[in-house]
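User: Show me a protein chain along with its predicted structure.
Assistant: Here is one chain, sequence first, then structure tokens.
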Amino acid sequence: MARQHIYSMTTTWTGNTGTGTSGYRNYERSFAMNAPAKPSILGSSDPAFRGDRTRWNPEELLVASLSSCHQLWYLHLCADAGVVVLEYVDDASGIMEESSDGGGQFVSVTLKPKVLVAAGCDLAKAQALHEAAHAKCFIARSVHFPVKCAATITAASAAVL
């Protein structure tokens, strides 16, 4: 039997400026996301949709979820395979297209991890583990658009450790 994991959180709109949603320009798109024993994440809509650019927006959070899930799987698989990762930085980006009806959807996300592995590690194995991480990533398996990975793997010099 498959194990189930339940993730609960609360999103609270914090953008009532006194008149609620009495008009399109009369409220802020601000919200707070909370889960037990975790700091709040302050969010808003994308600035293109009257949001606060200093807060996370849902689109950024989706890209961040894909990037971090891939990273965590990759590190796990590398540890199991004897590939020693010393650094991992991902400059991920996503493309969302608006529809004529005002809605929209993501059409792709590209992960661009730059990985530094210890000297002597098998670079081909380190590269192949990105495919395995993608196949295991809970978030990537849950979305209906392509998630591409354009990884760069570099080996450290023998003096770095």
